[in-house]
Design goal:
The structure is a single chain. By secondary structure, the protein is mainly α. It contains four helices and no strands. The chain is globular.
Length: 110
């Protein structure tokens, strides 16, 4: 169970970070509490989805499978929580979360 909660925490942080950075378009000087809360909702939805899926017998802890899953779920969560003006914003948020998932996995394994 501890492994699953750690996994959910990592997925929350990856989705939260990606969503926050995409909302402010990389300009860290304009981050507000509203941005952080919206990103938190996206991260929470992503983490809950990954946690739920982790109970499936088909779930894989492979680096790239988890990165892909994180990206797709983050994109879907972003579309639900923070409807984009155009679909590209949600896609970029998902890609960012997937890239963060790969980077964190590689950094934490060393």
């Amino acid at each position: 169970m501890n492994t699953k909660l750690t996994l959910a925490g990592r997925k929350f942080s990856e989705a939260w970070t990606s969503c926050l950075l995409m909302m402010v378009q990389g300009d860290l000087t304009v981050i507000s509490l509203k941005h952080a809360i919206t990103a938190g909702k996206t991260g929470l939805l992503t983490a809950m989805a990954v946690l739920l899926l982790s109970y499936s017998k088909y779930f894989s802890y492979s680096t790239y499978t988890l990165a892909w899953l994180t990206g797709v779920l983050t994109m879907l969560a972003d579309m639900l929580i923070h409807p984009p003006h155009f679909i590209g914003e949600a896609v970029l948020t998902g890609v960012g979360a997937g890239v963060l998932a790969i980077l964190l996995d590689k950094l934490l394994k060393k």
